[in-house]
Design goal:
- The structure is a single chain.
- By secondary structure, the chain is α/β, with parallel strands linked by helices.
- It has two domains: about 5-245, 3-Layer(aba) Sandwich (Rossmann fold), CATH 3.40.50.720; about 250-365, N-(1-d-carboxylethyl)-l-norvaline Dehydrogenase, domain 2 (Orthogonal Bundle).
- It is built from 15 helices and twelve strands.
- The strands form three sheets. It has a six-stranded parallel beta sheet with strand order 5-2-1-6-7-8, sandwiched between helices. Strands 4-3-10 form a three-stranded mixed beta sheet. Strands 9-11-12 form a three-stranded mixed beta sheet.
- α5 (about 130-145) links the parallel β6 (about 105) and β7 (about 150-155).
- About 40% of the residues are buried.
């Protein structure tokens, strides 16, 4: 298969999400999308390991789905090779000039969505720029200079309007480099900037699995997965993919139900000595409290604005009962106050506006 996907990021999430789905599509009849070239920017250990393993590894899908325990293995063989940006940048640009290239995906974390003052001028010697937006701009510029069509850019960073935001950063970087107006127009119009919302827990290697000794790249992931994309008419035809004209309702559903439930548990259960999400939902009192918060206070204020709020709520509770993962409240509690402001307080305000009274459970635990 041709190398059609350039991927910035070699971490667990992309390997247990994008690369896994590409492998599944490539094994289907008429659904193949091509091979992935991975670019690692920080360090080179993961790139070297991927190459040593021929780009092949396994993902153990572990958790709850439709009331049953899932524990199965999926082989991933979609990665053709991995490159280190610091020492193999010319090879990255050669991929950018490939006629088969169709997509660029990324997961550089929120820190990757920033410019770097060291990228004030476009390098002439062929070295890699410092920031991710500058690297992406260089990739797109060499493609333009080769007379090739634009590609789809699909960021997977957990940033709302991530495609639009990345486009703004790349255009800003192009301004720093003095890119001509006609090239700027190509960047804005010929390149398809796709907003993307991803949802799956990929915690790392499973504990004590039989494949751990033979597969150094072994990962675990929960059964649940969702990939919403906006800004493109057609995308990969995988069951987890939802192409939509507006991702806003999907963000709202995730932030208010999934993330809101997490922060509600931090406020209610952590002071009571609970350590993990699973302990909370398996406890009769705390589990009932959380379900009441979701059913009576969170879902009612968003149900008319999102798709299948109740179904998503049930899936969330099932994900929380995953017997294979230890999702600690301590980690969820980081930046708790800021999370409460975005995840829970809007629900409180909208509940009061809609029903003319305060949501009893959330108001009590938040003291508002």
């Amino acid at each position: 298969m041709f190398e059609t996907i350039l991927q910035f990021g070699a971490g667990n999430f992309l390997r247990g999400f994008v690369d896994l789905f590409v492998a599944e599509l490539n094994r289907g009849v008429g659904t193949g999308v091509g091979k992935v070239v991975v670019v690692q920017s920080m360090g080179r250990e993961q790139a070297d390991l991927l190459n040593a393993c021929g780009g092949r590894y396994h993902v153990v899908i572990q958790g709850m789905a439709e009331g049953r325990v899932v524990d199965e293995v999926v082989k991933v063989d979609s990665i053709s090779r991995a490159l280190h940006a610091g020492s193999q940048w010319s090879e990255v640009l050669a991929v950018a000039r490939g006629e088969a290239l169709r997509w660029i995906v990324s997961n550089t974390t929120e820190a990757g969505f920033a410019l770097d003052d060291r990228d004030g001028e476009r390098l002439k010697e062929g070295g890699a720029p410092h920031s991710f937006p500058a690297k992406l701009l260089e990739v797109l510029l060499v493609r333009y200079e080769a007379g090739l069509p634009g590609v789809g850019v699909v960021p997977c960073e957990l940033i709302e309007r991530n495609g639009e935001r990345l486009r703004e950063l790349v255009v800003e970087q192009a301004g720093r480099w003095g890119v001509e107006a006609r090239v700027l127009e190509w960047l804005k119009e010929a390149v398809r900037w796709v907003d993307s919302l991803v949802d799956r827990i990929v915690p790392g290697p499973p504990v004590g699995h039989a494949l751990k000794g033979s597969d150094p790249l072994l990962l675990s992931a929960e059964p649940y997965a969702f990939w919403g994309v906006q800004g493109v008419e057609a995308f990969w035809e995988h069951p987890v993919v939802q192409v939509t004209g507006d991702l806003t309702p999907y963000y709202l559903r995730k932030v208010r139900i999934l993330n809101g439930a997490h922060s509600a548990l931090v406020a209610y259960a952590r002071p009571r000595g609970f350590r993990t999400v699973r302990e909370c939902v398996e406890d009769a009192e705390v589990g009932a409290w959380l379900r009441a918060v979701l059913e009576e206070e969170i879902v009612p204020v968003i149900a008319e604005r999102v798709e299948d709020a109740e179904g998503f709520m049930r899936a969330t509770m099932e994900r929380f009962r995953n017997p294979f993962f230890e999702h600690r409240l301590e980690s969820i509690a980081l930046n708790h106050e800021a999370k409460v402001r975005t995840r829970l307080l809007p629900t409180v305000g909208e509940y009061r506006e809609r029903f003319g009274k305060s949501p009893e459970l959330l108001s009590a635990v938040l003291g508002v």
